[in-house]
Write a structure and sequence with these properties.
Structural class: mainly alpha
CATH superfamily of the largest domain: Hypothetical protein af1432
Bound molecules: fe (ii) ion
Distance between the termini: 21 Å
Number of domains: 2
Largest sheet: none
Shape: elongated
């Protein structure tokens, strides 16, 4: 598989190297960065769109470049402000239903992904037009597409723009801009709306289509250009809306594998419960819950052939797994007010005795919030089915958690979780056959 991020601070547990330069949750200084919760919708969505580009087969920056290309075409069409805003978010989120890496060669799976994408856009609160645009992006002008075999003007205009934009980015990345334009013209009237092809070709010939849209362009410049486009609709999100967005992206992560279909939400519930039980202030409880919701967003980079593997992983496969907390951090750090959350989420596989990954941090490096998420993650992983075992029952989970504290997991956090379990034992956990040793790969 391709690994898209240069991970300068990531050190694999297997290498034996320790990197002490990384900023840890314990050394994070509140007030040094913007943590007051002010954040714009475009800032958070454009950053999380990076996570979608981690999915196998995608290219880093694809969502952002597609957004620029599509918005330039739209500018020629003089759309309303409302339609322009819907298109902006549809372009950033067009692949949001495709996190599962499932076989996309079947019509059934394509339809499922279209519906899933539209559902997530709706859950994000971005409106019906954006959801409809994402749902119909695989329709073809000649009626040969999916999910409804719509034809010509029956296809929502925003979907038609998204389709042209994604084609341009994919083909320019693989074959260069001239080939991208050439194939666009070839497919005019079959796949693509001829009028939109004409607009795109005109922009190309005038030399105004590709600025910041080449894979060789700076990712930061591309993102800045995307954020500048949203000047008309940028606004500060309230806390509830941020939670809603975190929950929607937790769904994207959980949809990747049926073994983790509720992992992020389950870890968030456990982390929230522990944080409250330990008496954290409401804003710290909220921080812990959001970090837990998004802790595995970097896992979108791990192929399903690894996540769903029923046997032990080889060295190469483990390396892919070891990268995901670092990727989580890199994605979330792109959102200024999420900086502390990014560090906490990126530490969810660290252990107090330095045996965790990716940075082999020690007890003193890990904040209470970070320790809470780590305990919640282990609890969630043990209670869920994995390819190599079924979920453990409560007795087994309690036994393992007790053994992991205090050396690897924080004993106070474990105690808080055990008190919650004692009060409200979870139902429906499936016992495993005796002798099946659980791995702690959450
Ligand atoms: Fe993880
Ligand atoms: Fe996890």
């Amino acid at each position: 598989m391709r690994l898209w991020f240069p991970i300068s601070t990531v050190v694999y547990a297997g290498t034996g190297t320790i990197n002490y330069m990384v900023q840890t949750s314990a050394s994070f200084r509140r007030g040094l960065s913007n943590t007051d919760g002010s954040i714009s919708l475009s800032e958070i969505i454009s950053a999380l769109s990076y996570a979608l580009d981690l999915t196998e087969g995608a290219v880093l920056g694809h969502a952002l470049r597609s957004c620029l290309l599509g918005m330039r075409i739209a500018a020629e069409l003089k759309l309303t402000a409302e339609a322009t805003s819907s298109l902006y978010f549809a372009l950033l989120l067009k692949d949001v239903g495709r996190s599962s890496n499932a076989n996309t060669s079947t019509t059934h799976e394509i339809v499922l992904q279209c519906d899933r994408g539209a559902g997530i856009v709706t859950k994000l609160g971005l409106g019906a037009a954006a959801a409809e645009a994402v749902r119909s992006i695989e329709e073809h002008w000649d009626g040969g597409g999916h999910p409804d075999a719509l034809k010509g003007g029956e296809i929502p205009l925003l979907s038609r723009i998204c389709a042209v934009a994604q084609h341009l980015d994919v083909f320019s990345g693989e074959c260069g801009v001239e080939k991208a334009i050439h194939t666009l013209i070839e497919r005019s009237g079959t796949w693509f709306d001829p009028e939109l092809v004409r607009v795109a070709v005109s922009l190309h010939r005038r030399g105004v289509l590709w600025n910041h849209c080449l894979p060789s362009d700076s990712q930061d410049d591309t993102r800045r250009a995307v954020l500048d486009l949203d000047a008309g609709t940028r606004h500060t999100l309230e806390g509830g809306r941020i939670d809603q967005i975190c929950e929607a992206f937790a769904d994207v992560v959980d949809a990747k594998s049926h073994f983790t279909f509720r992992h992020s939400m389950g870890v968030a519930d456990a982390a929230y419960g522990i944080a409250r039980e330990m008496g954290l202030a409401p804003e710290r409880v909220q921080l812990v819950r959001r970090a837990a919701l998004l802790h595995d967003i970097g896992k979108l980079s791990v192929p399903n052939t690894i996540l769903d593997k029923a046997t032990y992983l080889d060295e190469f496969e483990w390396e892919s797994v070891y990268q995901h907390p670092g990727l989580t951090r890199q994605i979330l750090e792109r959102i200024g007010p999420f900086r502390e959350m990014a560090i906490i989420a990126g530490e969810h596989h660290e252990k107090l005795d330095g045996t965790g990954y990716p940075n082999r941090l020690m007890r003193a490096d890990l904040s209470l919030e970070s320790r809470i998420v780590a305990v919640a993650d282990v609890y969630g992983a043990l209670s869920e089915d994995r390819p190599y075992r079924t979920g453990l029952d409560l007795r087994q989970i309690v036994s393992i958690l007790t053994k992991l504290a205090p050396r690897k997991l924080d004993p106070d956090c474990v105690d808080a979780l055990l008190r919650i379990i004692a009060e409200e034992p979870a139902a429906g956990l499936i016992p495993i056959p005796v002798g099946n040793v659980p791995q702690l790969c959450a």
